[in-house]
């Protein structure tokens, strides 16, 4: 009986470690992406401070797939830091979302979702279920969760 109990405790421990590992790097990256979405919706005129996002991406992801996407995203984040117009920010953000959208939900516990607007043919990442399209303030409700 003690042997079975030890095995069950060991299995539960492994599942606990697995679930804890998924609360890490990808979640933090998605939290930063959610903040970028919010800044775009607010149409912040300032350049974006993306140093935290860049640092997180450089640390790699929770899986090989996430790490590969993060590496591809680093130059886009650097480009986003330099963007000074609304149009430039949205263009780079769109590329960044395309690069990182495959990581949403895999190891991510941030509540982030990927949305798509068929009118502008672009994706965005935001928190929750409510559609808040960052690409056109006149079309904030246009889009769908994918």
- First and last CA, distance: 48 Å
Name the strands of the widest sheet in spatial order: 2-1-3
Radius of gyration: 18 Å
* Class based on secondary structure composition and strand pairing: mainly alpha
Strand content: 5-15%
Tally of DSSP helical segments: 5
Please mark out the parts with pLDDT under 50 across 5 or more consecutive residues, or reply none. 16-22
- Number of structural domains: 1
**Helicity level:** 40-55%
How many distinct beta strands? 3
Summarize the main sheet.
3 strands, antiparallel
Q: Overall pLDDT, averaged?
A: 87
N to C succession of SSEs: HHHHHEEE
Query: Given the C-alpha coordinates, what overall shape results?
Result: globular
The oligomeric state is single chain
Condensed summary:
54% of the residues lie in helices and 10% in strands. The chain is mainly alpha-helical. The chain has one domain (24-145).
Task: List the main descriptive attributes of the protein structure presented here.
146 residues, mainly alpha, 3 strands, 10% strand
Reconstruct the topology from this structure.
Elements: H1 2-21, H2 25-41, H3 51-58, H4 64-82, H5 86-100, E1 112-117, E2 122-127, E3 144-145
Antiparallel strand pairs: 1-2, 1-3
Helix pairs in contact: 2-3, 3-4, 4-5
């Amino acid at each position: 009986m003690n042997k079975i109990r030890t095995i069950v405790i060991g299995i539960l421990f492994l599942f606990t470690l697995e679930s804890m590992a998924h609360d890490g790097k990808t979640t933090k990256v998605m939290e930063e992406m959610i903040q970028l979405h919010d800044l775009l919706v607010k149409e912040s005129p300032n350049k974006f401070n993306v140093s935290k996002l860049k640092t997180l991406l450089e640390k790699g992801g929770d899986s090989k797939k996430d790490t590969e996407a993060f590496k591809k995203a680093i130059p886009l984040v650097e480009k986003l830091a330099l963007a000074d117009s609304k149009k430039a920010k949205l263009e780079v953000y769109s590329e960044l979302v395309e690069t990182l959208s495959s990581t949403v939900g895999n190891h991510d516990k941030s509540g982030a979702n990927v949305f798509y607007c068929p009118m502008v043919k672009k994706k965005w990442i935001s928190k929750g279920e409510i559609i808040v399209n960052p690409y056109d303030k006149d079309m904030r409700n246009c889009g769908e969760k994918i």
